[in-house]
Protein MAIN-LIKE 1-like (Cicer arietinum), 356 residues
Amino acid sequence: MTITLDDVRGLLSIPCTGEFFTPPANVNEDLAIAAAVELLGKLHERRYDCAARAYLLHLVGCTILVDKSFTLVSAKYLFLFQDLDSCGKWAWGPAALVVLYDYLRDSTLPATKQIGGYLSLFQTWIYEHFPDICKRDMDEHISSMPRMFRWTAKQTSGNVAYYRAKLDALRDTDIIWAPDYDQNAVTRFQSVSLFTGYIRWCFTMVPYLPERCIRQFGYTQHIPPTPPMLVARDVDVEWSMYRNSVRSLRARLHPAAYPHECVEGYIQWYYRISHPRMIPYVAAYAGPSYDADAGPSHDADAGPSHDAGPDTSCTRCHAVGGLIQQSLDLHMGGPEDEMRVLLERALYISRGGDYQ
């Protein structure tokens, strides 16, 4: 799963079509000062335009284009508002996604200490798709406001280990794969969300591959093709012709019979090419360890040992839960499949659930 252009559209109510922005190649201090004087000056006859530019620069710098400083805005974004009448031509949805994708990619590196990007978008995306991961309140959605404003965070006490375990315990039925963003929405679904290729903002390009999370659009998940290479590609031209990409993808899609449906072999493929768990599986049980000649030792008269160390029941339950989870991941039955229901029940009990 990932944040898609449809999530951006649904949560922020901003358009996902338009042109990619290319700033001047070298925005040095002199150029930044000159642009500020020209676009943010205090000439009386231009005061309203200057005030509008200052507000818009502040708005995007605090939201979709925020960096790690959270207090500074890059001078290159001044040129977004050089012509106020044409601000609507920019691809604001992809802009938010490129910046967030880029910072999320950096966050996977061990040396990274901070993260940028519009984290409120990331947070509300989690609220929409993973209702049981964290505590939050949902207010009545006002149709004139972006959907993200209906969520209010609540204080939690979980640490990193807690959330890793929560993520690993997720079942496919615990996820809202395709939220109904069109209910009381300011904007409607845009086919550009199914574009496959690269999206760009300034000089940063990131791959956008909806085929890897097509269940979020209501289709059966298939094994996606190899991602396209960036070399020798005109990203802007491909984006302007996104309808060709959308038509090609839709021709290969099939509506899902149930939200998490996937083709046979997909789960096995995914486990082979990815890292699907935060906490590695406990090694499979290999049987008791004993000397081959002497056989296993059973001292019936010894009674319970007080030096055997801590109780291992929790470790055993964790190991059993890991094996059940592996079985679930490999089982292709739908949500009503009897075997799947039994496995999910066993997994629930192994993780401390009520067994009555």
The first strand starts at residue 136 and ends at 138. The chain has two domains: 1-21+90-268, 281-286+311-356.
